[in-house]
Amino acid sequence: MTLSDLFYLLLAFHGLAVLAEHYSEAFTLIRYAGAAYLFYLAWKLWRSPVGAAAALAVVPRRSDIVKGFLQGFLISASNPKVILFYIAFLPTFVDLTALAAGDMPLTVALTFAGLMLGLMLVAAGAGGARRFLQTERAMRGANRSAGALMAAAGAFLVAKG
Questions:
Q1: N-to-C CA span, the chain
Q2: pLDDT at residue 79 in the model
Q3: E strands in 2-145
Q4: I need a surface site. Which of 31, 62, 104, 126 has the fewest CB within 10 A?
Q5: Of 155, 131, 125, residue with least CA distance to 42
Q6: Which of 28, 70, 38 is closest to 160 using CA atoms?
Q7: Nearest-angstrom CA–CA distance, 74 and 38
Q8: How far apart are CA 21 and CA 105, in angstroms?
Q9: Distance between CA 124 and CA 80 in Å, rounded?
Q10: pTM passes above 0.90
């Protein structure tokens, strides 16, 4: 997720607003691809198995790590709020045209640190909530709630077009 944000930050440095203006079809395609992916994730969560075996912590395989990276990247990269932030909001408080070449690595490093801190806090909160989600009923409810939220986000992306 952090890398997709950094990707948009770098695009903002190099005129993302101009790209969005001239290639709006590409951004629309990205939005629809993101919506389709959210519907897929919602379906997977809704139908995912629950139980003691599903709750056990296992060492992830290499393919699971790559899959997790791609999921995080695609979810964040297709999020219209992320795109809107880097197109419209960021330039209102950071004059990107005034940044020198040496300022860009510092800005990227600070953005990376802030995003990682935020995501680590979310992960810590999820880790703390894990003990409350040990029952099958709680796991099923959490999966279905998350699936419903992803489906709603996907519907929002489609409706926004």
A1: 23
A2: 77
A3: none
A4: 62
A5: 155
A6: 28
A7: 10
A8: 26
A9: 26
A10: no
